[in-house]
């Protein structure tokens, strides 16, 4: 435990917006060599706290102290100059510039007033190596996957001199192996004397790293505790203010009938990121998990089925009809819908209301139906009202902009969008990314409910626990190829993790009936 | 505790929100009243009719521009498109009825607009560049087909489309109002308009939501083409002539009107009431400065200042209104 004087003190900070108090009298201290977890549900005030410490927003009242002296930040540069480095949840990378250029953006390495490209490239490579990352410094950001972008964002924070490091959900986009690397890195930084504020929804990480924790609820600090002897349920209870119902894991009551024919049939599909043709089928009511590390082709597989990425060869069928995979509109017409991994960029329409975001994908009406040409507001409000109940979307007025909702509620709106397309196949990529603990459980329930209604569901996730919690069977991809299919009794967190790392599970256990056609495909 | 404190300021914020929402309309109203009081000629019926007429041409085009900008597009080719439509109308008028000539002009406008949309979507060229290229093409077509000469239009009935009145209002203005209302209806009450806003808000997310993005964009360009053709008819009717240079620079007026009216150049948001008001604002400002005897070169400074001031105010307002949504999203 660190007993040194605090580097950073947040003293009774309040931040209010018109009609909303995001933070109220929040106090927090951070000492050298300390990793402090900042916990709370979405909307609890964590991001506001980070923005204030990072100089992006000014508090309504209260003070910040760095090394014992009061400071006022009027921008992120002030905060950086005070020795605070922030790894933000939202990337602040310039997509058109290279990895090295982004890492040194704003504090370029210069020689005689000119940017020294070679030096930057070398230094960037060193930093990337320290993190054990295999990313070329010369690549453009927009050619990287989301996970790699996240890692570059972290590398950028490390490239600056800092005493205080703020990490906002740094592992949200990472797979297990990358997470382990990152956690080791964070521990190393702590041992060197950095003070770290670690924000994450992933409690195992928090339990491993943090020595202290500050818990926020509704903008107020409800606990400032030492993490010694603290267990996960205790933290969840502090965050929610109530105990969470236990997630039933071992009772795998499959809701589908093995005699049913597959509704989604993928045959010999190849696309960028999938090097070996993949075949599989999903039956009505079945929830098929898709596991795999980043780079395994998980995201690409789903995108290709949905027509959001070019299919190089192979076919997708829904029922007996071949799916037009040339565009998402074509796939939607055939009864497929997808919720992508990047809700902000690919999901929500920020200028549109919650209601409009819900109904936007409704199938186009016939030529002579007046509703094709003129919007029926009353009808839409009724539709939305019913959905809102069923999906438990928390919003006071349907006309609110979608951005005003928390991540979990936004995701529920997108589920509503899927429901209104009357899809028979629903593809979910990282369905609970950036969603708080409470909403996560609700989304799992929702997925099961849709499956119970006969929708065939494919869930792709980087969280093994998530796949173990929701999926019946689980497809495992490894380096662009189909490695294994875990039957329901073998879908456990450990098996998924092991399989994702390239271990075949079904060889050692009895080969179930789950994988037949895919064996032929290889 | 938080709920009770949050209800108290909400009543005050609704009033200030309304003032903020209609600030442009309030400013124009106050300015017009002041002008009417200090300058009797300003409130003469002749001047009013002239102001309304002058607001109509760029105004009708600005309606289409508003839709395009909301969808994340822009059309710099309108001056050329207008010229081609006007020249076509003047060429077919001797062989057909006025209705027939107008119909031909509107069809040409729709086709040329759709071509703009096709170039943008199928050749995947940014609208700014694609329509700049098409501006040159359309202007050239207008010049070549007229040999660079002014085409006179002798029909007095056609002339009435530009100079006549309906219900005491200049016909071009009545048509402009109709175009505004139609645009507003498309934007707010049709699935097409909603898709325009969706695409301007996020093209990627729109595609993922199953919107046929290319189709919507081409349709929007075609609609803008029709509105430009409408301006071509009323303007050539007023001038009783058509030629290649008749509307040079009108794209900038139309964009300025849309933007001062509150349409965000980033797409996703816009107001046709704003576009209507801004069209009138520029016309009224022009008339005021003339009546006050301000030399025309100095008038340009005033126009520029108004444009920048409106944008600066708009930016401040956006920052102010962006906060609550952002805060709740944390």
SSE inventory with pairings:
The complex is a heterodimer of chains A (522) and B (330).
Chain A: E1 8-17, E2 20-30, E3 35-39, H1 46-53, E4 61-66, E5 69-71, H2 76-81, E6 84-87, H3 99-103, E7 110-111, E8 114-115, H4 117-130, H5 146-159, E9 164-168, H6 176-191, E10 195-199, H7 203-209, E11 212-217, E12 220-226, H8 232-240, E13 264-271, E14 274-282, E15 287-291, H9 298-305, E16 311-318, E17 321-322, H10 328-333, E18 336-339, H11 343-347, H12 354-359, H13 370-373, H14 377-391, H15 407-420, E19 425-429, H16 437-452, E20 456-460, H17 464-470, E21 473-478, E22 481-486, H18 493-500, H19 517-521
Helix pairs in contact in A: 14-15, 15-16, 17-18
Chain B: H1 2-21, H2 23-38, H3 45-70, H4 78-92, H5 98-122, H6 127-146, E1 151-152, H7 156-163, E2 165-166, E3 169-170, H8 171-189, H9 191-201, H10 203-208, H11 213-239, E4 241-242, H12 250-260, H13 272-291, H14 296-329
Antiparallel strand pairs in B: 1-4, 2-3
Helix pairs in contact in B: 2-13, 3-8, 3-9, 3-11, 3-12, 3-13, 4-5, 4-6, 4-11, 5-6, 5-11, 7-11, 8-9, 8-11, 8-13, 9-11, 12-13
Write a brief caption for the model.
The complex is a heterodimer of chains A (522) and B (330). Chain A is α/β, with parallel strands linked by helices and 522 residues long.
What characteristic shape of chain B results from the CA principal axes? Answer: globular
CATH topology of chain B: ABC transporter involved in vitamin B12 uptake, BtuC
The largest sheet of chain A, given as strand count, sense and whether it forms a barrel, is: 6 strands, mixed
Strand order of the largest sheet of chain A: 6-9-10-3-11-12
Percent in helix of chain A = 25-40%
Helical region count of chain A? 19
Q: How many DSSP-defined strands of chain B?
A: 4
Q: What is the H/E order of chain B?
A: HHHHHHEHEEHHHHEHHH
User: From the coordinates shown, what is the CATH architecture of chain B?
Assistant: Orthogonal Bundle
User: How many individual domains of chain B?
Assistant: 1
Biggest sheet: strand arrangement of chain B: 1-4
Low-confidence stretches of chain A: 245-249, 508-522
């Amino acid at each position: 435990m660190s007993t040194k004087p605090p580097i950073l003190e947040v003293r009774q900070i309040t931040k209010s917006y018109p009609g909303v108090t995001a933070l109220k009298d929040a106090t927090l201290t951070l000492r050298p060599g300390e990793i402090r977890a900042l916990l709370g549900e979405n909307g609890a005030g964590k991001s506001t706290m980070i923005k204030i410490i990072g100089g992006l927003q000014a508090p309504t009242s209260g003070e910040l102290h760095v090394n014992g002296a009061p400071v006022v930040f009027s921008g992120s540069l002030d905060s950086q100059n005070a020795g605070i480095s922030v790894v933000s949840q939202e990337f602040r990378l310039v997509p058109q510039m290279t990895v090295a250029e982004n890492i040194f953006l704003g504090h370029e390495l210069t020689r005689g007033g000119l940017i020294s490209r070679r030096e930057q490239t070398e230094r960037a490579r060193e930093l990337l190596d320290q993190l054990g990352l295999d990313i070329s410094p010369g690549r453009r950001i927009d050619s990287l996957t989301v996970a790699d972008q996240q890692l570059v964002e972290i590398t950028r924070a490390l490239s600056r001199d800092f005493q205080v490091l703020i990490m906002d959900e740094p592992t949200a986009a990472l797979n297990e192996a990358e997470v382990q690397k990152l956690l080791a890195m964070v521990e190393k930084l702590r041992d060197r004397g950095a003070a770290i504020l670690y924000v994450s929804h992933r409690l195992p990480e928090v339990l491993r790293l943090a020595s202290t924790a500050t818990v926020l609820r509704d903008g107020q600090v409800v606990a400032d505790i030492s993490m010694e002897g603290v267990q996960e349920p205790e933290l969840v209870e502090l965050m929610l203010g109530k105990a969470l119902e236990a997630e039933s894991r071992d009772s795998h009551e499959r809701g589908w009938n093995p005699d049913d024919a597959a509704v989604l049939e993928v045959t010999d599909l190849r696309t960028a990121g999938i090097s070996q043709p993949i075949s599989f089928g999903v039956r009505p009511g079945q929830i098929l998990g898709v596991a795999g590390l980043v780079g395994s082709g998980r995201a690409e597989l789903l995108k290709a089925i949905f027509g959001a990425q070019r299919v190089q060869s192979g076919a997708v069928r829904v029922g007996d009809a071949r799916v037009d995979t040339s565009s998402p509109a074509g796939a939607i017409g055939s009864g497929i819908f997808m919720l992508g991994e990047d809700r902000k960029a690919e999901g929500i329409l920020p200028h549109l209301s919650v209601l409009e975001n819900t109904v936007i994908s409704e199938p186009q009406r016939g030529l002579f139906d007046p509703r094709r040409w003129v919007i029926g507001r009353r009808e839409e409000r009724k539709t939305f009202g019913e959905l809102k109940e069923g999906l438990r979307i928390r919003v006071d007025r349907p006309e609110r902009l979608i951005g005003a909702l928390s991540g979990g509620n936004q995701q529920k709106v997108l589920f509503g969008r899927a429901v209104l397309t009357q899809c028979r196949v629903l593809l979910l990529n990282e369905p609970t990314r950036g969603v708080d603990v409470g909403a996560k459980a609700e989304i799992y329930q929702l997925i099961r409910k849709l499956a119970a209604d006969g929708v065939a569901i494919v869930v792709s996730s980087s969280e093994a626990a998530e796949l173990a919690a929701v999926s019946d069977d689980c497809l495992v991809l490894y380096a662009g190829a189909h490695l294994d299919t875990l039957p329901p009794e073998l879908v456990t967190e450990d098996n998924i993790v092991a399989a994702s790392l390239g271990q075949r599970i079904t060889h050692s256990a009895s080969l179930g009936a789950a994988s037949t056609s895919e064996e032929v495909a290889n | 505790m938080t709920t009770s404190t949050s209800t108290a300021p909400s009543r005050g914020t609704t009033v200030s929100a309304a003032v903020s929402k209609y600030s442009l309309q309030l400013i124009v109203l106050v300015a017009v009243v002041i002008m009417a009081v200090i300058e009797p000629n300003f409130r003469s019926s002749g001047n009013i009719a002239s102001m309304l007429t002058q607001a109509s041409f760029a105004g009708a085009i600005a309606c289409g521009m508003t839709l395009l900008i909301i969808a994340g597009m822009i059309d710099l080719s309108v001056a050329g498109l207008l010229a081609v439509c006007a020249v076509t109308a003047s060429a077919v008028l001797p062989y057909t009825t006025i209705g027939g000539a107008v119909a031909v002009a509107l069809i040409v406008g729709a086709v040329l607009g759709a071509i703009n949309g096709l170039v943008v979507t199928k050749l995947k060229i940014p609208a700014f560049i694609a329509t700049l290229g098409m501006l040159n093409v359309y202007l050239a077509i207008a010049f070549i087909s007229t040999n660079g000469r002014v085409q006179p239009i002798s029909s007095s009935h056609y002339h009435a489309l530009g100079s006549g009145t309906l219900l005491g209002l200049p016909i071009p203005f009545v048509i402009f109002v109709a175009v505004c209302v139609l645009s507003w209806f498309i934007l707010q009450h049709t699935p097409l308009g909603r898709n325009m806003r969706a695409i301007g808000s996020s093209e990627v997310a729109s595609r993922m939501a199953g919107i046929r993005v290319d189709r919507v964009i081409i349709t929007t360009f075609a609609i803008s083409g029709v509105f430009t053709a409408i301006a071509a008819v009323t303007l050539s009717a007023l001038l009783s002539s058509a030629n290649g240079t008749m509307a040079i620079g009108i794209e900038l007026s139309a964009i300025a009107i849309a933007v001062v009216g509150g349409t965000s150049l980033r797409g996703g948001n816009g107001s046709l009431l704003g576009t209507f008001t801004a069209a009138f604002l520029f016309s009224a400002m022009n008339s005021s400065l003339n009546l006050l005897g301000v030399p025309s070169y100095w008038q340009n400074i005033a126009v520029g200042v108004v444009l920048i001031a409106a944008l600066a105010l708009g930016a401040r307002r956006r920052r102010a209104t962006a906060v609550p949504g952002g805060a709740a999203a944390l």
